[in-house]
């Protein structure tokens, strides 16, 4: 099997999943790149987690009340999912349609929202927005339950246009006006939620979406230049047919899956990094009836994607989950899951609790002197633990290939962690360091420690921070 095939597959699984072991990469590469893309796009062909079994081990997962419990569950899902793209797309929308635990009736509401992203995140954009507009967590978070006929609250209407569906502007022009915000907010009056029934004595009954027609403003509205007796669904229809909606989805997909872009507030006056690919995605958006899955399919199969290796700074989630999938720890329920999940927070991404409705700034803004130390120390601690199954697999594989030459050992370790490529000076340093330790024989404790040390040096490099 050609090494370039494995390298391309490693790139795909870093972006469309959370990385993969070398054995999984071999299996997927043998099946073929395009066939793997189709497998990823059809998650229902793979089993989901068996929650009844997990709830026996983690009894708090039954109700998911606290933020930390939800974070532990989400971390476990991402480590063990057999539907990696579905989980990655849920994370993608979570970073755009931001709802925070800091303003939430209870933690499980956001978990239910993530379930909606899993089910609808690769479907039609208009249907996804309808689901979002009816999502109890979002209705409560952005105060639409406080918006009434004759007394509108603009929070939901404003963020729908600014952050969720269109963006402030494109090509140096504004996408909407303040009047559009007001008219959209009027259209969503009456979209509210029922009160959650207290959890005792039988357990919590979740708040549900409800439409109160008596509180809906049913008078004429002018939105995005069109006049009618619009309701919330009409507003979503009017949004989704705008070129700005196509651009919005396309740029977000490119930033998440391909290469780091400037932050969203700069999009109005900053052209796309790759206009040709963005145009391709915009065309597919309209040709497919706003189908996000079709946009992802074209993107993952494009040369723009295949040639964009290591053009993205890993998010904290990608650092932690990718490393754990490499070392194969927490593949079954056990103590310590919550402290593991906390590492994502310490690196700057408090899942399910973003700093603002704008979400997290990505790319180079993930990295500062503090978070970089957290990233390096976490990854080095994991790959340096020779008792972990994934580390043992790497050691045994190298030993079975009888690799002991320092240069070959370093190069093979780079391949085993995902076909990483180091700068010349860094690569020479690693090889010299491995050579200075003297000869080593496969099958010995010294050999295991030597491999683990090389792995630690690899994950401490600048290159490992990129996907």
Describe this structure in words.
- The protein has 467 residues and is mainly α.
- It has 2 domains: 3-304, no CATH class; 316-465, no CATH class.
- It contains 23 helices and 6 strands.
- It has a two-stranded antiparallel sheet. Strands 3-4 form a two-stranded antiparallel ribbon. A two-stranded antiparallel ribbon has the order 5-6.
- α14 (275-287) runs antiparallel to α15 (292-300).
- It is globular.
- The chain starts with a helix and ends in an 8-residue tail after the last helix.
- The model has no long low-confidence stretch (mean pLDDT 95).
User: Helix content range of the residues, please?
Assistant: 40-55%
Count of domain modules: 2
Give average pLDDT, whole number. Answer: 95
Strand order of the largest sheet: 1-2
Give the class from helix and strand content and strand pairing. mainly alpha
Overall spatial form: globular
Number of strands: 6
Rounded to the nearest angstrom, the radius of gyration is: 24 Å
CA distance, first residue to last residue? 23 Å
The number of helical runs is 23
**Main sheet properties:** 2 strands, antiparallel
Strand content: under 5%
Low-confidence stretches: none
- List the helices and strands in order: HHHHHHHHHHEEHEEEEHHHHHHHHHHHH
């Amino acid at each position: 099997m050609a090494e370039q095939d494995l390298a391309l597959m490693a790139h795909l699984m870093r972006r469309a999943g959370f990385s993969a072991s070398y054995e999984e990469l071999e299996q997927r590469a043998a099946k073929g790149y395009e066939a793997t893309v189709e497998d990823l796009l059809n998650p229902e062909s793979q089993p989901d987690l068996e929650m009844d079994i997990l709830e026996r081990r983690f009894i708090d997962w039954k109700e998911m009340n606290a933020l930390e419990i939800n974070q532990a569950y989400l971390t476990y899902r991402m480590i063990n999912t057999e539907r990696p793209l579905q989980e990655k797309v849920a994370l993608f929308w979570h970073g755009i349609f931001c709802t925070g635990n800091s303003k939430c009736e209870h933690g499980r509401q956001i978990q239910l929202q993530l379930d909606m992203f899993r089910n609808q995140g690769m479907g039609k954009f208009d249907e996804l927005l309808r689901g979002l507009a009816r999502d109890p967590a979002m209705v409560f978070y952005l105060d639409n339950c406080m918006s009434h006929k004759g007394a509108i609250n603009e929070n939901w209407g404003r963020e729908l246009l600014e952050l969720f569906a269109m963006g402030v502007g494109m090509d140096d022009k504004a996408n909407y006006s303040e009047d559009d915000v007001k008219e959209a907010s009027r259209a969503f009056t009456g979209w509210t939620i029922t009160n959650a029934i207290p959890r005792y004595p039988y357990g919590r009954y979740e708040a549900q979406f409800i439409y109160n027609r008596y509180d809906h403003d049913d008078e004429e509205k002018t939105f995005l230049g069109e006049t009618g007796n619009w309701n919330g669904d009409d507003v979503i229809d009017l949004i989704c047919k705008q070129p700005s909606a196509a651009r919005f989805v396309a740029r977000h997909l490119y930033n998440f899956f391909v290469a780091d872009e400037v932050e969203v507030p700069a999009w109005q006056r900053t052209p796309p990094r790759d206009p040709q690919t963005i145009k391709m995605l915009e065309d597919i958006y309209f040709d497919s009836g706003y189908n996000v899955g079709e946009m992802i399919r074209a993107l993952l199969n494009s040369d723009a994607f295949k040639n964009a290796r290591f053009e993205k700074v890993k998010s904290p989630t990608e650092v932690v989950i990718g490393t754990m999938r490499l070392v194969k720890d927490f593949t079954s329920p056990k103590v310590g899951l919550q402290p593991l999940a906390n590492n994502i927070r310490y690196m700057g991404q408090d899942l399910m609790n973003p700093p603002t409705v704008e979400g997290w700034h990505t790319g180079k803004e993930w990295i500062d002197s503090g978070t970089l130390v957290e990233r390096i120390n976490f990854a080095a601690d994991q790959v340096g633990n020779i008792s972990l199954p994934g580390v043992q697999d790497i050691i045994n594989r190298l030993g079975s290939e009888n690799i002991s030459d320092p240069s070959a050992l370093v190069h093979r370790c780079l391949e085993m962690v995902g076909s990483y490529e180091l700068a010349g000076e860094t690569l020479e340093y690693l090889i010299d360091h491995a050579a200075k330790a003297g000869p080593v024989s496969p099958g010995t404790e010294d050999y295991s420690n030597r491999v683990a040390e090389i792995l630690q040096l690899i994950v401490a490099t600048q290159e490992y921070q990129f996907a």
